[in-house]
Design goal:
The complex is a heterodimer of chains A (about 400) and B (about 100). Chain A is α/β, with parallel strands linked by helices. Helices cover about 25% and strands about 15% of the residues of chain A. In chain A, strands 1, 2, 3, 7, 9, 10, 11 and 12 form an eight-stranded mixed β-sheet that branches. A two-stranded antiparallel sheet of chain A has the order 4-5. In chain A, strands 6-8 form a two-stranded parallel sheet. In chain A, helix 1 (about 30-35) crosses helix 9 (about 255-285) and helix 6 runs parallel beside helix 9. Chain A starts with a strand and ends in a 5-residue tail after the last helix. In chain B, strands 1-2-3-4 form a four-stranded antiparallel β-sheet, with helices on one face. In chain B, a hairpin with a 3-residue loop joins strand 2 and strand 3. Chain B is globular and about 40 Å long. Chain B is about 10% helix and about 40% strand. The chains are: A alpha/beta (about 400), B mainly beta (about 100). At the A-B interface, strand 2 and strand 12 of A face strand 1, strand 2, strand 3 and strand 4 of B.
């Protein structure tokens, strides 16, 4: 029947706070539905818990010590080595490759072009409304607009009456429609900006998480024996207007408990908001008749501490900051069913699914590149030699394709 | 089939104590790198000296360590690094690419 397409979905700062990962609070029916038709890696980890290094690492299948990117301010092709990326490799194999939203980290880290034209057949799309993301657009109790962390909004009152991830979902659906009936396979990467801070989200999603039912983190204090070097002082939160008013002491805080509850409520609401955008995408894939021929990968760049260890950020090696959702839907392999009807979380919030094929072994985001290649029937990159700065195409990950054929042991 | 499944991560720091740029140090300011390996049973992290001009970590210049036994401590709240003989783990981490 020809080669399969790929829909690659990546969220920003999405930890495993999803129903399909056993989180009792989260309402994520669309991602749970995808998980029910997918192989779900329950213990998947990012290589560095910050956006640019993690995304570059995943997309090149090289660890940060090989990309030499630990901050946001260098482009691996000139700073470390001219490594091929997953979309670049697929493009070289005849795929139409497209990027919507935040796939690569923008700026120097991807040469101010999202690595176009190496990785993409067309320039990357960025939602126009993202330009307002860090401006004073959050209504405060005083009636004025602020640069708040907690930023649940009436979307119709926002500039353009839209939010970035809504625009990205709409653009991705448009691109999917444009691919119907074409022989050339596609790789469509869709990067959602949430649940990254600020929690600028449609206000109705807060109603899914009543404050009186919201638990605090089970371990909200900085551990007694934690070395100071391991701790991060969550500086990006401290810069927001509403957090500044708390006068949280540097570096250890803490944040008052009533604000902790609000923060957790908003994070979970942002997760449900992203889930709805994922649901829109998958429903379109289904309605366009593409879900029988399209591999779907869903993951995140890293996790986020929701108050565990007194932290409110990524920027660490803690499991909550490095563990990510990772699932692969492979039509006819992970599931016979290929339907993805949109699930409205407001009317069906209690809907539950059973994971299709859970895998408990440790895996890493550097494994994604070779695994996708093999699942598409392409030759996967070879394992990298110990020093690989001059090797354009190789992997520092493992090819997980065997796990789709054989159940894990022990 | 008998290979131990592991996942690795790392995080840079500008200093041993939290400071304003601890979350996101620029490359030139990185002085310490925390290398982690994790299995079903534990997460082991060594914070070692790092030279940003050569990109070299000095695995014998250990600034701090963390060891969490996941079965008893899934939230990683009790660091038992100082309690256990960890030389074997240091060697294991040192031998990695």
């Amino acid at each position: 029947k020809g080669r399969r397409n790929v829909l690659f979905i990546i969220a920003d700062d999405l930890r495993t706070s999803l129903g399909c990962y056993g989180d009792p609070v989260a309402r994520s029916p669309n991602m749970d539905q995808l998980a029910s038709r997918s192989q779900v890696f329950l213990n998947a980890y990012a290589q560095q818990a910050v956006c640019a290094p993690s995304r570059t690492s995943m997309l090149t299948s090289r660890r940060p010590d090989t990309t030499r990117l630990y901050d946001f301010y260098s482009y691996w092709r000139v700073h470390a080595g001219n490594y091929s990326t997953l979309p670049q490799y697929l493009k070289s194999q005849g795929y139409a490759t497209m990027s919507v939203g935040k796939v690569f980290h923008q700026g120097i880290a991807s040469n101010f072009s999202d690595d176009f034209p190496y990785s993409w057949s067309v320039p990357a799309y960025h939602p126009p409304s993202y330009r307002y993301e860090n401006l004073e657009v959050c209504p405060g109790r005083d009636g004025a607009l602020h640069r708040n962390l907690l930023c649940a909004v009436n979307v119709s009152e926002q500039p353009g009456a839209v939010l970035p991830d809504m625009e990205s979902a709409a653009q991705a659906v448009t691109l999917l429609k444009s691919r119907v009936g074409r022989r050339q396979p596609f790789f469509l990467a869709v990067g959602f900006h949430k649940p990254h801070i600020p929690f600028r989200i449609p206000q109705e999603f807060l109603s899914l998480y009543p404050l009186e039912e919201m638990p605090l983190a089970p371990d909200p204090d900085v551990p007694e024996l934690l070395p100071p070097v391991a701790y991060n002082p969550w500086m990006d939160l401290r810069k927001r207007d509403d957090v500044q008013k708390l006068n949280a002491s540097f570096p250890y805080g803490p944040i008052p408990k009533d604000f902790q509850l609000l923060l957790r409520q908003h994070y979970y609401a942002a997760v449900s908001y992203v889930d709805a955008q994922v649901g829109r995408l998958l429903a379109a894939l289904d309605e366009l008749g593409l879900s029988d021929d399209t591999l779907v990968v869903l993951t995140s760049d890293h996790g986020w501490s929701l108050g565990e260890h007194g932290e409110w950020a990524k920027y660490s090696n803690f499991n909550v900051a490095t563990r990510v959702p990772l699932m692969f839907y492979v039509p006819g392999v992970t599931s016979a069913a290929s339907s993805f009807p949109f699930i409205d979380v407001f009317s069906q919030s209690g809907r539950r699914f059973q994971n299709g094929r859970p895998v408990e072994n440790m895996v890493e985001l550097v494994d994604v590149f070779p695994t996708v290649c093999s699942l598409l029937g392409l030759k996967a990159p070879r394992p990298c030699p110990r020093v690989s700065f001059k090797v354009e195409l190789c992997t520092e990950g493992k090819n997980l394709v065997h796990s789709f054929r054989h159940r894990e042991r022990g | 089939a008998n290979k131990e499944h592991m996942a690795f991560s790392q995080y840079p720091r500008p200093a041993d104590q939290p400071q304003l740029n601890s979350d996101l140090p620029l490359l030139k300011d990185i002085r310490v790198m925390g290398y982690s390996m994790r299995t079903w049973d534990y997460r082991f992290t060594l914070w070692v000296a790092f030279d940003p001009s050569t990109f070299q970590a000095n695995m014998s210049d250990i600034h701090a360590g963390e060891l969490y036994m996941v079965a008893d401590d899934p939230g990683e709240d009790v660091n038992v690094f100082s309690r256990l003989e960890h030389v074997a783990m240091v060697r294991k981490l040192d031998a990695l690419p």
